[in-house]
Amino acid sequence: MRFDYLCASLAVVIINPAWATFNFHSLFEESQPTKTNDPSKQHLSPVINLSKIVKPVANNISFLSKTQKEPCAVVSSSSAVQILANPTAIPIVPAKLAYDCLTSVPLNKTAALELVYSIEPYIQWQSNLAWLKDPPKDYDFPPHDTLNVLASVKENLLNDKYPNEHSFQIDLYSVFTLAHDGHFIFFPDLLSRALDFRRQRALVSISEDGKSLPVIKLFGGFFDLPKSSLLMTCSKTNNMFIDDVIRAPRVASEITQINGINASEFIVDEVIKTTGQQIIDAGYNTLFYSKAGFAINQGSGFFAGAGRGRFLYPGPNTTLTFGNGTSLSFQNVASIRGNFTGVDSGQAFYQRFCDPNRFLVPSPAPPPPVSVPPSPLVPGYPPAVIKTNNTAVSGYYLDGDGFEDVAVLSLLTFESPSPPEYQRVVEKFFSLAKRDGKKKLLIDLSQNGGGLIFLGYDIFRQLFPDIVQDGNSRWRVNDNFKSISEIFSSLAQDFNPDTTSSRTLVTQANLPFNFREDLKISNQSFKTFGDKFGPFSVKDDKFTNLMRWNLSDPILTRNSTFGIGTDVTGYGFRQNFTRPFAPEDIVMLHDGYCASTCTIFSQFMRELGGVKSIAMGGRPISGPIEGVGGVKGSQILLWNDIYQLGQSALLNATEEQAKDLRRLTTLPLSRSGAAASNVRDAILAKNIDDGTPSQFIREISDCRLYYTEHMITDVTALWKTAADSAFNGKACAYGSLPKRPAGSALDSVSQGFMIESTEFITYEEISPEQNAAWLAVHEQKAIN
After folding, report:
1. Is 588 strand, coil or helix?
2. Does 780 score more than 80 pLDDT?
3. Model pLDDT for residues 733-747, shown as the tens digit of each residue
4. Sequence ranges of the chain with CATH classification 3.90.226.10
5. Backbone phi, psi, residue 625, to 5°
6. φ, ψ at 601 (rounded to 5°)
């Protein structure tokens, strides 16, 4: 029995290190969790014998010194005991104790002001500041003047408004979280490096019959804990359980209130404070358990933990009130992520986790080539017809009446250590599906937060090889961007890829900062620096011209050092393909999480391919919702990447350019757990004239469906319900998908799809040079 169950379940964690020899296993009755990779089948039932701990705790608290009674010292002691008992476990302490530790950290006003000043030039790379400040009227969130909010944080520092480091960093964190942009983040060190908060129960949002509005219920299998409060007195040793959707789906009661607030309103409030999604319905879905969420990262929904809310104190306890009159209260906890050895005070915490000299930023180095063995089954999913080794892509066939000709392509992410393998697995699945008589295709994009940009392009072109995609984008022009572009364009003036021996020059010449790279929206090359970089005025801000990727450039694509190791379908050696399915026989399934590269793919499919979409879940409000709810920006750059680009440009900078570039320092990098900006806006064809980024354009899905209990426990139930609406004429909860004519898919595919059948494709992982320059071209993923 794991020691961390104890610490997750009891408020008694003020333990002296002398407890390391105590037999904690004796605290538990014999009740072992069922071992499975599916939480819907996992019943964790540690029955705690409180009588075995009460006396030892009482006897040992007296040994605590004054220093050890400091909240951070108590966290340190408890963490040490837990690690000693189980070195592989993540220590857990009560959320209130962790919060008291964080708020005991004194404010270093001078360092805080230096941090705020150092952040400003990185924020200037954020492409949509003008629209955040003044969004369209139908945008889900209120205006957010990012630079002005940052200035108010600086003003508060100057006027001594912050009592401690925590209150300052909470305000600094809100500069980014209130932008609701999955590419725009700054995780301050105090909040992100030491610990994060979580609740000990997961929730689901489901409709009772698929037609009525969804309600919130308790999800089983995350922690099965006593019905009585986790802050229970020593006399409460019963092992009664609240009915949940796993243990008793037919009688599980609706949760009507959370902490005394209407349950759905409580969830919406959490979304407004923390979500990285750009629509509320999408953020709402992220707080609940889903099969896809567990498959991609073994998560149980952001209500239980993870997401951007993990850095915010949720209070000491959570109380759930049920429609049947019962209630459940449990203690919130904090997971210890940092090394608390020797952290015996708030000041020691600051020195350990907030000292920039302890977190110097190393230069990124490419990883060595490694052999990647096939992964096991996609967690919680049935056996696949074929899948990638990292389970990013998997293909399935549905069975049963009405589904005999339906294939399902699950795209959990566009990330891949080997883009050629990702491409080949999708290609092969289409070939196998056609061989086996599958005429309809359901593309499940649940929980897809993006990945490699060109893989999104490639899957679209595998389905529509005859359609040349647009993919219009633009950068915001700031002083650093202008200097880097001037320097790299000058260096690439005489660049010849066939004769140069300089890897650095190849890298610089193939970056978007060289005006000769990329194409106009007419698919012609830019002729001058001003032609590409302007600047051009839109909404009282400065931008580049609209541009598109030049996918005919082999250095960008099939080169395995600077590209992704393969041509994008429709280019180079991957031409003369034909459509494997007709557009009317394809449907996309979204859960609102779709972000980054996923949004690019979805927009191509909808706008250019004419493919319809289904959106799942959302708030308990009738009407349509958007299925693509993640960040729709066209490019993310980590601040470390921006810094490295600036350092590279500095080697050839004029004095004036150098002055601008030196404003990019390592301070924000060494004082954050992660930091990034959305540096490119995606611009849909219909918005070329007004310039509004797609991030602020509503794109309603054709059909809305609600999750049911069966879909929570069986992903094929979700797929069949979606396929029924898409292909068999079953009604949507809102919207419609007209029944598709049978046999409308093409009867054959090109020779390029004909690959022999194997269960796995074993491969040697390619090793593209994933430095700042490579990421500036290829990476596109939301960060939560």
Report:
1. strand
2. no
3. 999 987 655 433 333
4. 386-465+571-631+697-753
5. -140, 170
6. -60, -45
